[in-house]
Each structure stands twice: as structure tokens, then as C-alpha cells.
Specification:
Strand content: 5-15%
Radius of gyration: 17 Å
Order of helices and strands: HEHEHHEHHEHEHEHEHEHHH
Strand order of the largest sheet: 1-2-3-4-5-6-7-8
Oligomer: single chain
Number of helices: 13
Distance between the termini: 40 Å
Shape: globular
CATH architecture: Alpha-Beta Barrel
Largest sheet: 8 strands, parallel, barrel
Structural class: alpha/beta
Number of strands: 8
CATH topology: TIM Barrel
Mean pLDDT: 88
Helix content: 40-55%
Low-confidence stretches: 179-187, 265-282
CATH class: Alpha Beta
Length: 282
Amino acid sequence: MSRIDAAFGRMREERRVGLVTYVTAGDPALARTADILRALDRAGADVIEVGVPFSDPLADGPVIQRACERALAGGATLDRILEVIREARPSVRAPIVLFSYANPIYRMGFATFAARAAAAGVDGLLTLDIPVEEAGPIRAALLDHGLDPIYLLSPTTTPARARQAGELGRGFLYLISRAGVTGARDSLAAGLPAMAARVREASRLPLAVGFGLSRPEHVRAVADVADAAVVGSALVSVIADAGDTPDLVPRVEHYVRWLRGDGTGGGLPGGPGGDTLQEREC
């Protein structure tokens, strides 16, 4: 059983919605990324997504775009990110999923990447710009090294394509809750229950919902339609606000505990509301 399967198994046994957290590797500095991963794990993230910064993003909103710019300016590369994950892995229980565009992996070579990622302790890969219909070569390399290929579904995904993603995917499916780019919102998409129901009919894989989630009530609401909630841009905003300071790790851990409902208050100054968090990503 993979670490991802085990994580979703624990969620089912404990009858709770899971929390998947996304961070951009190398932001605010590559030297801090291992500490951030450990903080996410301590705070109770069930799955940790590590974004590989890319210069020409398609799906990322302004918060993650700026995080990628900072990471690239600081020298973050796929090679160095894999080394950071290797360093952090022994002290991180949660599965680690790389979240990347195709180009950095293509440049390394699919087989070389899969071997190095597995050796570093990566558990799965989600590539935003490789559609499931064209994922055969990289999927084969991932499976050869015990890594889970994970696929994105959107509000416009057809039932047939959702079935294909469910048949070819491993670990979980990632449902984008709304069309457009990443970014925190005040509320969940109105059509989310119907979207999730369509995916449930097409696949038995666990379902994680992302894009726009930023608050504990969003995480709780996802429990009605999916197995896990994905929080990305809002967490990246917390990291951006803290910067490369001694407050960085405590604020990351504080925010994730708040998302999980641990009663510790919000991740931003001003307490549980994080009053300006949603307004920054529009």
C-alpha cells in the first residue's frame, strides 16, 4: 500500500475530511522548504503538495505566480527540490506529491525523474499540462518506480474523460472546483456538489477538491462531497507575509492547525478571520 493510499485509508477510518496543503518549493527560500514541509506534517496535513516553480504558468493565479518568481530568483530547480525532499522525508509522515508543469520533468527525462523522485521519497506526481490522453509515457515511468500518477478534473470534464482519469490514475483525483486560475475565494463554487457527484459516478478513487479554499468552513463543507480539501494560494499567502523570518514556520503551522479546526486561531495577524486573506487573490 502506498503512503497516499494509507493516508486516505486513515481519513476513512477516522471518518473525517482530509487536508491537502500546497506550497511552492523555494519560497521564500529553498533553505526553508524542508522546515516548511516538517511544519505542515506536524500541523496535521494529510497530504503535502510541493509545487515545482515554473516561469510560464497556465493555471496559477497571482499569489502562486509571485511565489514561483521568488523561488526561481532564489535558484530553485527540480534537481535541488528533489534534494530538499530527500532531506525532509525521514521526518515527514505525510505523503508528498509533486505538483509540476511538464517542462522541468521533460528536460530531466521521464525515467530519470521517476527514479530520482522515488529515491527522494516522493509518492506521486500531478502534471498540470499533460492531459490524461497524452500521459502514457510519463505514467509508465511513474508506475515503474512505484509513484502514483494523479490527474486533474475540471468543471468541464466529460464523464468519459473522468472515467479515463479514474482508470489510469492512482492515489486520488484532484477536482478543480471552478474554472479559471488558483486563488482564495470567499465561498465554494455553487455547482461543486453536482460536479463531485459526477466524478463519484465515474471513479472509485478518493476525491480531493481544490481552487478557492482558504478557511476551516470551506474544509468542513468539502466533507459533504469529497474525501479531502486542498488549500494552496491561501497558505502561500501566509508564507509570503511571513517571508524569510523566524515567524515563518510557526505561522505556517498555526494556519494549518486552524484549517483543521484545532482552535488555534488564524494564520494571519488579526486572528481566526485572516480578514484580508481572500481579498488578496481575486
